[in-house]
Amino acid sequence: MLTDGWLKGKVAVVTGAANGIGRATAILFAREGAQVVVGDVDVNGAQGTIEEIRGFGGEAVFVLCDVAKEADVVKLVMKAQQHYGGLHTIFNNAGIEQPVMPSHEVSEELLDQVIGVNLKGTFFGCKHAIPLMRKAGGGTIVNNSSVSAFANVGGNIAYAASKGAVMSLTRVLAIEYACDNIRVNAICPGVIDTPMNQRNLDRADDKNTVWQRWMSATPLGRMGTPEEVARSVLYLASDMSSFTTGVGLLIDGGRLAT
User: Fold this and answer.
1) For residue 176, which of 242, 126, 250, 217 has the smallest C-alpha distance?
2) Which CATH number belongs to the domain containing residue 30 in this structure?
3) Residue 26's domain spans which residues?
């Protein structure tokens, strides 16, 4: 069901919207009245997101997009302009994990791949959304960082470095474009029940040990859900957070508090 919600009349871009946090956010944005441009490399998953949105009367279109390729991101962002007439908010969510391994074993290829999607992809989204937002008189950007930007257990140097850089990028842009009425914030999820974390668990030699480590580091004692994260993204993307910019909102079940 559509609502006369927090994003009524807005146009939003969501990357990595085929599953997990991106999918939950695209659906919530549409329920809150936004017209949504869905970007992903997973065609089938993205089409599932589109079908769910259209099923309750929402508006959404799909663009095949590898965020590590600037030309793809240009097409994604320009679809918002061409199809819906502008752009008011973007959620730079697309990201990939790194297999847990000693840092000295990380290859240049793996480092480039993780940085390419997680950092460059986020930068490209911001870079090409900002001119449209300036034209619209303002807008909101939400980037997906991670609790790993602040707290870590080791073995994920490329991922943690990429997410720490996303936080720095977020602060730079928040300062630089505040004068254009563009607010730039980040979310910093902890352990969330997503396909990415399921892959991390499936790779583990001892799944129970990994699970127990996740739970012991999370005072609330459970995984978060994509829908819980999506509500925080909505807060930062909407006028509910109208005096908030340059922050990294922790959604980590209390992990960093430990």
Assistant:
1) 126
2) 3.40.50.720
3) 11-251
- Structural domains of the chain, count: 1
Q: Which amino acid is at 19?
A: N
Q: Are 83 and 60 in contact (CB under 8 A)?
A: no
Taking a C-beta distance cutoff of 8 angstroms, is the pair 61, 34 a contact? Answer: no
Q: pTM of the predicted model, to two decimals?
A: 0.93
Q: Which of 84, 159, 177, 235 is catalytic?
A: 159
Per-chain mean pLDDT for the chain: 93
Tell me the C-alpha distance between 25 and 253, whole Å.
Answer: 19
Report pLDDT digits (tens) over 107-148. 999 999 999 999 999 999 999 999 999 999 999 999 999 999
In a domain, 4, yes or no: no
Q: Is 199 among the domain residues?
A: yes
46 in any annotated domain? yes
Look up 159 and say whether it is catalytic. yes
CB under 8 Å to 88, separation ≥6 — which residues? Answer: 7, 10, 11, 12, 34, 133, 136, 139, 140
